[in-house]
Amino acid sequence: MARFLSAALALLLATASAAEDRAQPYPSRPIRLVVPFPPGGSTDILARALAQKLAEGLGQPVVIDNRPGAGGSIGSEAAAKAAPDGYTLVMGQLGPLAVSPAIYRNLPYDPVKSFAPVSLMAIVPSVLVVNPQVPAASAAELIAYARANPGKLTYGSAGSGSTSHLTTEYFKLATGTD
Question: pTM higher than 0.70, yes or no?
Fold first, then answer.
């Protein structure tokens, strides 16, 4: 019995040693950080700052991969379909993870099953701003101007179904403006 236990222990140690020899340190190659929005936006700016700090701390490049479109769903899909090896991260956001599932019937990813949350990075407020040529210095003045000039104002958003798009549509609905 002692001989069997000795042999089993030797086999176990040899197997553990072989597995340890095959293990690669992480990360051993560049990491891709998918930003499901265009360059220059708040998510992209935050991602670039994060990528720089991650690269410094991990000793590997962190490459930004902007994949805009469909309110963040295109980039989120790219991240969801990546190999689950820890070398692809995505800047998750309310739009593609909570809003898109409510407005798109056939998302190519499951916001709950396709991703594992890692960390809250930032809380980005929505801010109402207008062109200086618009005669409004407050929300009340903007609402009054919009009501008096239906269809004359336009707005920019991150795309159909994005939180900025839906927030503005809700603002229009709540204020009776167009």
Answer: yes
